[in-house]
Amino acid sequence: MAERASSKSATDSAPETVVVAEVASDQQPIVYERKKKKGKRKKKYSRGLKEPQRLEKGISRAAERIADAVADGFSEYRDRRDKSAGKKRDGAIKDAARNVGRGLEEAIGTAAKVPTDLTKRVSYRRLTRMVPLPLFR
User: Fold this and answer.
1) What are phi and psi of 11, to 5 degrees?
2) Domain presence at residue 10
3) Residue 79 falls within a domain, yes or no?
């Protein structure tokens, strides 16, 4: 197997050209391009702003999860309401309490991770600086 490097430098994000197989002189070689893998970069923060940014990420994730929970709850309610309405006369009204309960069950199950989203972003060291020490002894 023979290899050819692309004409751009190694720092560019250009794909690397590689000859996969060599064939007889009267045929063209099979060539494909692949991109080099990039490693995960470390996040950079300004001094003193790391914790607020991490906390903001947790708050935004918690808000997204609450929105998902509400959507899941209403979706479950509507599905069960339509099912009840199709099964019997006035079924949507007769089964309203049960259907609302099932929707709430779904919403609460989805929203159960909200407190974890909020608290896992806060570091213990930073928290001890902000809150008086007798609470943590």
Assistant:
1) -80, -20
2) no
3) yes
